[in-house]
Write a structure and sequence with these properties.
By secondary structure, the chain is of the alpha+beta class. It has one domain. It is built from 2 helices and 4 strands. The strands form 2 sheets. It has a two-stranded antiparallel sheet. Strands 3-4 form a two-stranded antiparallel sheet. It is globular, with a radius of gyration of 15 Å.
């Protein structure tokens, strides 16, 4: 069984990855997402990539660790 991934109405292999990376940088700059400390392997870039998490969830997880 084959799985076809899509981003909106465009096949994933046609997605503008540079635009996505710029959007992620913008979210990080605004403090809406933070580095989770985890990495995942990307076959596309053949490198480890940051796993981002919403600031809200990172703050909640940090609070749990303190208690």
């Amino acid at each position: 069984m084959s799985t076809k991934f899509e981003f909106g109405s465009r096949p994933l292999n046609e997605v503008d990855h540079d635009a996505i990376e710029e959007a992620i940088r913008d979210l990080a700059r605004e403090g809406l997402i933070v580095d989770s400390g985890h990495r995942r392997w990307s076959e596309r870039t053949r490198s480890y990539q940051i796993v981002w998490v919403a600031r809200e969830f990172a703050d909640r997880d940090q609070q749990k660790k303190l208690h």
